[in-house]
Amino acid sequence: MKVRVVYRGQVKELHFEGERVRVMDVLKVMGLSKEYAFVVRGEEILEEREFLRDGEELRVVNAISGGRGYF
Amino acid sequence: MKKCYKCGLKGVVYLPQYRIAFCKEHYLEWYSRRVEETIKEFHMFTRESRVLVAVSGGKDSLSLWDVLYRLGYKADGLYIDLGIGEYSERSRIVCERFAQTRGLELHVLSLGEAIATIPEIKRLEKRPPCSFCGQLKRYYMNRFAKEKGYSILATGHNLDDESATLFSNLLAWNMDYLARQFPLLPEGKGFVRRVKPLFKLSEKENALYAFLGGIEYVEEECPFAEGASSIGYKKVLSQLEEESPGTKLRFYMDFLRRLHPLLKAQEVELRHCSICGEPTTGEVCSLCRLRERLSSKTLSSSPSS
């Protein structure tokens, strides 16, 4: 499955094997930690264990200032 | 997600170091109270003080300005335009929009007009940009605050900034820097009082406040900040925090309680810079020396010289 991610003003499509992808998988593949990053769907902050829907658009917020972005 | 600690509704934010969750409303309330308690605990300022908040357009400084405004403090903003292309342009617009929507006063100081832009200085300086940029910002923030009659200069330094700085100073056993690291630096000797009301709040807690509070901020990072050593320290501390929530706050608060009272900063004799009049240890301050180097460089590269 795939999800579109908006991250620091850029859009990227992430592809995963299988259909059961959680929020924590998005953070992991982007090299981010829940300690300083979170994932948003619309106005809602998602929990790390929550499953994602195929093709949906998410926003990833990395709170660390000056950090190197994934993209 | 656990239920909100205050009202029992579904929580939207979980704070592992306190093992509590909050709904949106009570997270914003908890955050405001945390800032208010910090201001009072360290006697930073009162509601009668004229506070100047240094804003960059990022989540920390705008969250600070927002919470001070909501708590009823007299806080104006100062945005220093560093002249870093689109990044600075976008940051200025975000700060201006923030001030307009709340009816607050924002001062804009152009570094390019005052001395030179960061990219121009970078061509001359061998030091990392974050080093001279920080020095320039501190100089102009202090000078501007004095000129405009503000008694307090507030910055958005957070727990991650402070614990990373502490970690860095400890690695180098930089005793003088350790002695000077404190959430309040008193006024005097040509300086206004400098305070860090967000020092107990992590970057994520500030980002959550900005997101839930509907604060528009610039998420993109300064193009010159990539590879800054402080980021590495922040990531190391975040790994420890993930394994043992509360580590960063304990690390920094125990430093303030246990080690800081034993340290004594080296007495430095300050005088007025012979050119600009600002406090300095030498005859001419580092900013005026930089200005001289910039002007000689411009002259030497000029086709007519």
Report on the structure:
The complex is a heterodimer of chains A (71) and B (305). Chain A has one helix at 23-29, and strands spanning 2-7, 10-15, 37-41, 44-45, 57-62. Chain A is mainly β. Residues 67-71 of chain A have low confidence and may be disordered. Chain B has 305 residues and is an alpha/beta fold. Chain B has helices at residues 24-41, 59-70, 85-102, 111-114, 118-122, 129-148, 159-171, 175-180, 203-212, 229-243, 247-259, 286-301, and strands at 13-15, 20-22, 50-55, 74-81, 106-110, 152-154, 184-185, 193-195, 271-272, 279-280. In chain B, strands 5-4-3-6-8-7 form a six-stranded mixed sheet, with helices on both faces. In chain B, α2 packs across α9 and α7 (159-171) packs across α10 (229-243). Chain B is globular. The model of chain B has no long low-confidence stretch (mean pLDDT 94). Chain A binds chain B through residues 8-9, 33-38, 40, 44-45, 47, 61-69, and chain B through 1, 12-13, 58-60, 130, 160-161, 202-204, 206-208, 211-212, 219-222, 225-228, 230-231, 234-235, 238-239, 241-242.
Which keywords apply here?
heterodimer; A: 71 residues; mainly beta; disordered C terminus; B: 305 residues; alpha/beta; Rossmann fold; 2 domains; two-stranded antiparallel sheet; 12 helices; 10 strands; globular
